[in-house]
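[audit] Reproducing an earlier prediction to check determinism. Same input, same settings, fresh worker. If the tokens differ from the archived copy the diff job will pick it up downstream; this log only records the rerun itself.
[audit] input (289 residues):
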Amino acid sequence: MSIRPRRSALYMPGANARALEKARGLDADVLIFDLEDAVAPERKAEARALVMQALATGGYGPREIVLRVNEPGSRWFEEDVAAAVAARPDAVLLPKVEAPGTIIACAKALAGAPETRLWAMIETPRAILDVARISACARDPESRLDCLVLGVNDLAKETRARFVPGRTPMLAWLSNALLAARADGLDILDGVFNGIGDAKGFAEECAQGRDLGFDGKTLVHPSQIETANRIFAPDEAEVAQARAIIAAFARPDNAKAGVVALDGRMVERLHARIAERVVALADAIAARR
């Protein structure tokens, strides 16, 4: 089982050359070079040039590099996509995706960068209502769709929902998007937590996202990386239990067993498949250190 850890995905403002340089030493699994929300309209061209220079220079090691372009249909979109074709990041993050056609059109525009994948921002009411149709694009390999990303700030703005501890107003959106992603074999990242000074609140929201099933969290500040990496990774006890489950089903006398007794509880083969993913994730995290 091959897994790429996406516990922490840090947005990097494309117009901030110092931040782009500092990112080379950060322990985030994913760096999202942002040409959209983090960049003022008058600095879009400058940001694009800075990001292109940073990606050409390289030095980001095992981190997954994602370029967030401006909204399809905006006056910057075509030049952003042309830059992506030239730079060939690991993925392009499309904002404001509301229909499958947006994914297909962008995939075709990236023909010159065959290895670059597509990520889709789910950040409008229409996107939430149609998220199953959007995620279904992944059934066509030519769509390149690889991951969904929740944009909770935009969703809150559009719905007038409030940010409250526990995110009760948002749980329906989060769960709906997660179910769609899993139905089509996609990874999915939780939205950002704006309170960079609220370490406790951030840790609680990471734990909630992990328990809901998200693969990781998008971040707005480097100070959030360590917490996200820790919470979205299996701990030592979880990995040890997973290895014990795998070993139990690997014994010759359990070769045809659907259920085995282990440490005082009954374990099914579906638990073995869950355990295999836990171990694969732990091994992938260890390999990138």
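[audit] rerun output stored. Observation attached for the diff report: The chain has a mean pLDDT of 94.
[audit] end
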